[in-house]
Amino acid sequence: MAGKKQFDIATALDAAMIQFWRAGYANTSLDDLSRATGLNRSSIYSSLGDKDALFVRCLERYTTRYGDKYDASLSCAADRPLAAVRAFFDITLERIADPAVPDGCLVAQTVMSSPVLSASVAARAREAIGLQHTRLRAALKAGRLHDETAESFAAHLAGVNQSLAVMSRAGASTEQLRAIVDVTLDALAQTLGATD
């Protein structure tokens, strides 16, 4: 259409996601979103929704992008559970090391901000963080861990994964983060060895 500026929604959502990830939901204004996306306020509202709706879209974009990678990494869990979990942590460590994205994890950061979020956004963030636990539990069960052990380790691994994101924001080095992963994998290896 002549005279009407066209834009790519995927690019705008990525820009908004990075803005929310960098500053958090509460510290991101509509002016920040306008600068990040290159869209004026009315275009944001008409094309992407209000701030809550846009944030949920960004959160879903983030959880899908990294969730798909986590699922792929865990796909070998039935045959090689330890290698699958190592690959799972590698996804997080690669994201943390990627200079193109902010430090930390958008999901973890959002869950920590739950008191200032609307009920629907906070619920969506809790659901997103629960997906890690669910996918890890399924992978560990496929790797022949008994239900109770798979449940305990899934909770532990998900907690370690989120702590990596928080610690990276606090300035932990790659070596420190890798050491945390190694200790966790050693514990899992011992448990897996005991079940063989």
TrEMBL record:
Keywords: DNA-binding, Transcription, Transcription regulation. Residues 29-48 bind DNA. Residues 6-66 form the HTH tetR-type domain. Coiled coil: none annotated. It comes from the Bacteria. SUPFAM superfamilies: Homeodomain-like, Tetracyclin repressor-like, C-terminal domain. Transmembrane segments: none annotated. Pfam families: TetR_C_13, TetR_N. This is TetR/AcrR family transcriptional regulator. It comes from Streptomyces longisporoflavus.
